[in-house]
Amino acid sequence: MATSTNRSKNAAKKGSSAKSAAERSTGTFAVKRGLAEMLKGGVIMDVVTPEHAKIAEDAGACAVMALERVPADIRRDGGVARMSDPGMIEGIQKVVSIPVMAKARIGHFVEAQILEALGVDFIDESEVLTPADEAHHIDKFGFAVPFVCGATNLGEALRRVSEGAAMIRSKGEAGTGNVVEAVRHLRSILGDIRKITQADSAELFQWAKTLQAPLPLVQEIAETGRFPVPIFCAGGLATPADAALAMQLGAEAVFVGSGIFKSDEPAKRAKAIVEATTHYRDAKRLAKVSRGLGAPMTGIGMDEVVVKYADRGW
Amino acid sequence: MGAVRVGVLALQGAFAAHAEVLEGLGAEVSEVRVPGDLARLSGLVMPGGESTTMSKLLVSSGLFVALGKRLSQGFPVFGTCAGMILLAARVLDGRPDQQSFAALDVTVRRNAYGRQVDSFEADLSVTGLNAPFPAVFIRAPLITELGGGVQVLARHEAQPVLVRQGSVMAASFHPELTGDGRLHELFLSEI
Q1: Looking at the predicted complex, does its ipTM rise above 0.90?
Q2: Half-sphere exposure of A64 (CA within 13 A, CB side)
């Protein structure tokens, strides 16, 4: 057990006195980012029922995203898409032991407060739901629960980090079964990070202006050679090969939404995508797990997409 | 003298963070995903992540058998969080099909500290270290029972959180997330 001396040293070192009598500091950025670290190399699966959640956990998902409709159905149904019914989220929390995530609308901090009260492990401030605020994202520093946000480029990703996001994901077109947009976002974000690591100190000012991102975060990338929080891939992934593509491009984990439960054999496909995400450089293994999975979700081309979700968020 | 060759189990979880700390200490680090990756390693770190996910991938990759064999021969291993669950002899609140190596004579309860909002940071007094160690507990497992041969190196609120039994070291928290390499150094010194 830590002694009182240890506590005071710690407080001095961190310049904080947040440590309670119970000697625990909860809701810190290290703790939020820490869960994102734990999800690396894994597959986070969209689920709409407790039965789906069990299938996902059985297949080896590292977390599930609880929502009322998968993006493909949200796209088909139209209308306003909102946070899921708390009862539905609780039903999923009851049946699985892996982390449970849930989505709040962009800028809808009250939906986020409700999700935090439910004890969800991660909140996705998601463009898949209809935005609640056309100018402001949620101030994520005000929450103990960590947030993940989507981004199409490095500037957007850094703006979300400056608001407190503990994880960034690409903003590929959810519900399309088409990986092309997620690939575009990953290439844009990771490509610009590589360029910044080569920039000199004067060029960093220009990068911050061009990206419309906070200078200190741009400087941090230049110094450390990496993005401040984990970067995952999301949007349109439908096959084991899609997951391995995202990983080889430099994503640190993948989200799979409609791709699993809109396919012919969800359990088999889910397991294959988990295997592919771990063994993403092993082409022989990828060939093995890609075999006999039944039909994937049909998917749609970008020219057929009516509402482009990636345009939501600022 | 060559660098120590250690592996990090890279099926899922925070393996990259461990690799970075170990490399910083001068070790030669490689990722372990299949049995062949265990060759010529002097020790292994089993990271945090989801123990249920890792358990499945251990079985499907053939590592469960291959690593189990090495562990029974005294292969040095350091398990953190989910890694500790995989090493434990008894797991409470796990999935019925969850496999563990039983290389460490403890009982652990998964997610015993609660959900993510209950995850926390705390400073620990560790046997053999002269300054407190900053620990990050993420949906952490709790050691509820200790076998006779298990040495406790650190406690938090009276509960054991860092233990050692022979060549097996295990922590319920994440020493790889704080940039403090002292526990990895301790592990490397025992190899």
Answers
A1: yes
A2: 32
